[in-house]
Amino acid sequence: MLLKFVHAADLHIDSPFVGLSKVDDEIAESLRKATFCAFDNIVELCLREEVDFLLVAGDVYDGEDLSLPAQLRFRRGLERLSEAGIKSYIVHGNHDPLKGRRKGLKWPASAHFFGGKVGSEVFERDGEAKAIIHGISFVKSKTEENLARRFERMDSPLFQIGLLHCSVGSHSEHELYAACGMSDLTAAGLDYWALGHIHKMEVLSAHRPRIAYSGNTQGRHINESGPRGCFLVSVDDGGEIESEFCPTDVVRWGKQSLSIEGIEDEDGLLSGFQDSLSAVQKASDGRPAICRLIVSGRGPMHQELQRPGQLEQYLDEVRHMGLALSPFVWPESIRLKTSPEIDIEQRMKAEDVVGDCLRILRDLGAEDGKTKATEWLSDAVDHAGVSKYLEALSDEDVDEVVNTAQSLLLDELVGDEP
């Protein structure tokens, strides 16, 4: 085996969770520790697999103030790796640029932090050079320069790695920082690119150069659902690369759908919620979970759920159900996409106000119309008085607004019409 290493990024140690209210004390404590414990899981993976080194591709911390507890936890992890003879190579990203780095803490000699210019470090094992790691940190958070163009392969047959926090192409859910293209990365002539910034695990190129985002190590809100973790990478003597995604999250986020079709009464609905919680728990692989329950379909329970205050009562009850599970499942919200028992497609054909409105909503929900709907809604979200309280709109948010508008329209203008 030529090399074995872990590629991680976007630890965001000591980052708060977003979009939660009325959280139970037990859950609050689990969330407070989550990003710390996720990093501990990375350290344990490195020790268990006896890797050569750990790569961290930026955003170790969540903000430029670099909380002291986060730095101390990170240092202790690197010290444990150093005691086992495992090196660490780290770059800083847009959340923790060099200008915000706290002074005064001493770091293990085996941990190398790259500066604001591309640096190159030769990794040796038993005195023999095995690889070269190239890296650069963000000096300031708003880094727009294409940093990938600064990388260049050294004149050496050694396996060479690029460590970079950047945006490759365009990702609507993330701001563009140090944006570059695939051609910029391949032109550097390296063998592996360990990237950070995009919070979803993604392999952009499976061949040499292997180009990959490991994603963040712990989901922090509902749009970071599913497993979160890092890559365990092995390189054989011929330079062939194999990687395994290893989950490190300690609390998992997820979304679960429930259809009201065929549900006739409250007991049936509660039973459906219980089944949904069990499905979330099963998908979380033994971890506590936070979920969004999405209730859809047409049926008699639509009117029940639309009654003032009723949804909040169901949410309280379902939360009690989730807390009774071990590990717990906490519903952060219940979102309604239900409709009354009306043939919407047929009603849409009517030449009246209701038909006109339904056709408008249908067009807004289509791919072409969604752009216009997003523009209208973004104007409201970007308003100075509310923008600081809301995240950027996702396609799911737009769909939800359109579906809610359709439901309100049918309730107000059609009622119980068959």
- CATH H-level superfamily title of the largest domain: Metallo-dependent phosphatases
CATH first level of the largest domain: which class? Alpha Beta
The total count of strands amounts to: 15
Radius of gyration: 25 Å
Q: How far is the N terminus from the C terminus?
A: 70 Å
CATH fold annotation of the largest domain: Purple Acid Phosphatase, chain A, domain 2
Q: Which ranges are low-confidence, i.e. pLDDT below 50, for 5 or more consecutive residues?
A: 386-390
- What's the rounded overall pLDDT mean? 89
Question: What would you say this structure looks like, in words?
Answer:
- With 418 residues, this protein is an alpha/beta fold.
- It folds into three domains: 3-247, Purple Acid Phosphatase, chain A, domain 2 (4-Layer Sandwich), CATH 3.60.21.10; 251-341, no CATH class; 348-418, no CATH class.
- The protein has ten helices and 15 strands.
- The strands form three sheets. The chain has a six-stranded mixed beta sheet, with helices on one face. A six-stranded mixed beta sheet has the order 5-6-7-8-10-9, with no helix packed on it. Strands 13-14-15 form a three-stranded parallel beta sheet, with helices on both faces.
- Helix 1 runs parallel beside helix 2 (68-83) and helix 8 (353-365) runs antiparallel to helix 10.
- The termini are far apart.
- Mean pLDDT is 89; it is low at 386-390.
Q: Would you spell out the secondary-structure blueprint of this structure?
A:
Layout (H helix, E strand, L loop, with lengths): L2 E6 L16 H25 L3 E5 L10 H16 L3 E5 L19 E3 L5 E7 L2 E8 L23 E7 L16 H6 L4 E5 L5 E4 L4 E4 L15 E7 L5 E7 L4 E8 L6 H18 L5 E10 L2 H6 L3 H14 L5 E11 L4 H5 L4 H13 L1 H15 L13 H19 L5
Parallel strand pairs: 1-2, 2-3, 3-4, 6-7, 7-8, 8-10, 13-14, 14-15
Antiparallel strand pairs: 1-11, 5-6, 9-10, 11-12
